[in-house]
Write a structure and sequence with these properties.
7-stranded mixed sheet, 11 helices, alpha/beta, 2 domains, two-stranded antiparallel sheet, 2-enoyl-CoA Hydratase, Chain A, domain 1
């Protein structure tokens, strides 16, 4: 044994203190390190630069709905109808996504109240295969709309998606008209359909139910569009303006109605429900 080992073993050195990785969060925008508890208490918004972080479906529902809401059971649909395989089987991709997520697919629906006002809220979760729209997402969207119709209350949808789920091919694209029909049924019933666009909302979701709301709200800085910027630039062979496809740019050009910070979102939705909900006869 060397003299260094003997000295080290003889002295009462305290064990190295370990710092949990979850104690700090690095903001993807300003790169600042944020105390995780502070980040959570600020609704997952960076207190330095106001970057709105992505959050999962359960967190979003808890932020928008009053305590005690009901979570609708997610629908059972035929899985892997095309027997799709790229670098991995579609069934294996689903298993992997479900192992890291509490829900069976990317769209969850809660039924309850927002500041005491009846509402049904559907939330798309980008952490589940990029929030991609497949048969399960389309069916869950329809179930949420049907619950709103039965309760005679507004339907609020929070979008976050990379578009249609390629592993389901044309069956994924069929969810676009299916969801559009349900937005028409809500309109015919005189019930508000409000969309909250979050980062990112793109592809077939943008081309269908994400842009059909009676009121279009977006979170600050959210990426919203159909095709990616590189694809557009290569097609038109022009440099796109700064901030293109971001929420503030779309607001300026009349594509959405308002940009609302996350901490003000629940109150804004409650006010809109008061304005838009059908009035009961006295």
């Amino acid at each position: 044994m060397s003299w260094l080992s003997r000295v080290r073993n003889a002295l009462p050195f305290a064990p190295k203190r370990e710092t949990p990785d979850a104690l700090w969060v690095k903001c993807p925008s300003c790169q600042e390190m944020i105390f995780a508890k502070e980040y959570e208490e600020n609704l997952y918004v960076c207190p330095r630069c106001e970057h709105h972080g992505r959050i999962n479906a359960d967190t979003r529902l808890a932020q928008l709905l009053d305590p005690g809401f009901d979570l609708l059971a997610q629908p059972e649909v035929k899985e892997d109808p095309l027997k799709f395989r790229d670098t991995a089987k579609y069934t294996d991709r689903l298993k992997k996504a479900r192992a890291a997520n509490p829900h069976r697919d990317a769209f969850s629906v809660g039924s309850g109240t927002i500041d005491g006002r009846p509402a049904v809220v559907g939330v798309q979760d980008f952490s589940f295969m990029g929030g991609s729209m497949g048969m399960a997402v389309g069916t869950a969207f329809v179930q949420g709309a049907e619950r709103a119709l039965s309760r005679r209350c507004p339907y609020i949808v929070v979008t976050a998606a990379g578009g249609a789920r390629m592993q389901e091919g044309i069956l994924s694209l069929m969810q676009m008209p299916k969801a559009t029909v349900m937005t028409r049924r809500l309109k015919e019933a005189g019930l508000p359909y409000i969309v909250v666009l979050t980062d990112p909302t793109t592809g077939g979701v943008t081309a269908s139910y994400a842009m059909l709301g009676d009121v279009q709200i977006a979170e600050p800085g959210a990426l919203i569009g159909f095709a990616g910027q590189r694809v557009i630039q290569d097609t038109i062979r022009e440099q796109l303006p700064e901030g293109f496809q971001r929420a503030e740019y779309l607001l300026k050009h009349g594509m959405i109605d308002m940009v609302v910070p996350r901490k003000e979102l629940k109150g804004t939705l409650a006010t809109l429900i008061d304005y838009l909900s059908p009035k009961k006869a006295a």
